[in-house]
Amino acid sequence: MGILAPITGRLFDKIGGKPFAVLGMLLIVVSSLFLSCLDTQSISLTISFLFSMLMTGNALILTPLTTSAMNALPLSLIPHGSAMNSATRQLFAAIGTAIFVSLMGTKASLEQGFQFTYQAIAGLASLGFFLALSLPRKH
User: Fold this and answer.
1) Which of 2, 18, 57, 139 is 20 to 30 Å from 106 by CA-CA measure?
2) Would you state the pLDDT for residue 139?
3) What's CA 62's distance to the chain center, in Å?
4) Which intervals hold domain Major facilitator superfamily (MFS) profile (predicted)?
5) What pLDDT does 51 receive?
6) Taking 90 as the threshold, does the pLDDT of residue 85 lie above it?
């Protein structure tokens, strides 16, 4: 994420946040689907590549979409928007972790739990992908 942040920042100024959101969500969907197919015999390099792909998708959506959201606010509301952004990220990180760990525990084996959880992530990311398609082209 640290490597992509300056690049996405520069490109965001030129093309807006929608292309990053669409590509990022697509990467999350695809990598999550592939991660849901892994088993205990999977090669470490494959797991590392797929997880890197997932994190690249995260990097492509987080900074550009946060910037888009802040740019949509009037100057007087930016401090409140920033505070709400921080609070909701913390809240949903905690809730998301609890939900996905619970999903993992619903299956008989840890392997099945991971597979089911990544399928759920892919499903949620698919919704995010379609929402990203509805974003305005550029602010």
Assistant:
1) 57
2) 53
3) 7
4) 1-139
5) 95
6) yes
**pLDDT bucket at 138, cuts 50 / 70 / 90:** low
Q: Which amino acid is at 56?
A: T
CA–chain centroid gap for 59, Å, is 8
Structure tokens at 18: 């929608």
- Concatenating the DSSP letter of every residue in the chain gives -TTHHHHHHHHHHHH-SHHHHHHHHHHHHHHHHHHTT--TT--HHHHHHHHHHHHHHHHHHHHHHHHHHHHTS-GGGHHHHHHHHHHHHHHHHHHHHHHHHHHHHTSSSHHHHHHHHHHHHHHHHHHHHHHHHTS-S--
**Token representation of residue 1:** 């994420």
Dig out the tokens for 70 from the structure.
């802040």
pLDDT surpassing 80 at residue 137: no
